[in-house]
Amino acid sequence: MSAATLFAFAASLLVLFLTPGPGVLAMVGRTLNGGVWQGSSYGFGILTGDIIWLTVAITGLAAASEAINAAGAWVWAVKIIGAAILIWFAWGAFQGVFKPKAGAGLPTGRPSKRGLAATYAAGIAMPLSNPKAIAFYLSFVPAFFDLSRVGPAEYAQMVAILFAMGLVFIAVYVGGAHKARDWLAATGLKRWADGVTAVLLAGVAVVLLVR
Questions:
Q1: What does the alpha-carbon distance between residue 119 and residue 210 come to, in Å, rounded to a whole number?
Q2: Selection from 133, 102, 144, 126 nearest residue 17 by Cα
Q3: Ranges of H-type helices in the chain
Q4: At what angle do helices 36-70 and 113-128 cross, to 10 degrees?
Q5: Inter-residue contact 158 to 54 (CB < 8 Å)
Q6: Where are the domains of the chain?
Q7: Segment 56-71, tens digit of pLDDT
Q8: From the CA atom positions of the chain, what is the Rg in Å?
Q9: Which of 54, 115, 173, 196 has its CA 20 to 30 A from that of 44?
Q10: Contacts of 126 (CB under 8 A, 6+ apart)
């Protein structure tokens, strides 16, 4: 795979990442409510889901597409799991409106491994059931790139590009949301931001189920 082809692949990913969808809203919401660790975990979940779709496209597009279309129950299971976790997070944020934490309103220390795992799982569920991600990796990428000529080395290069751009994507959105979170806590508005975050996360859960 030539350098020009890899550059074109990176450019197409940039377009994908610069068109924010419900996944970005959920990642920002998790950061506002839970902090950098939670927001980053959700972002890495999204990135993992993207890598899964890229792998599916490269290793067996036709068979995978048929399996996905036939396994409607599987897709719904992913949607329900992702939406349920988001609603759980929304409830936690909503409680912050009526039971604000003492001090600055920001939890200290690293969150629990179970909480991070749940956030990561919700992040994976987002692209796995996201029509935009499915169309990009299973339709756009095969149409513009000859995936039949992608070997292990080319696959590693494409994953590396996706991972590197995903890290930038996570850093920008999570970093911005984290700064906003600190400002909200310093100005005493964190509890009201928790209410907005709860609505945001619940809204994303609904979108995940109905789209």
A1: 21
A2: 133
A3: 3-17, 22-34, 36-70, 72-98, 113-128, 131-135, 141-144, 152-186, 190-210
A4: 40
A5: yes
A6: 22-210
A7: 888 865 455 555 555 5
A8: 18
A9: 196
A10: 22, 23, 26, 45, 46, 49, 82, 208
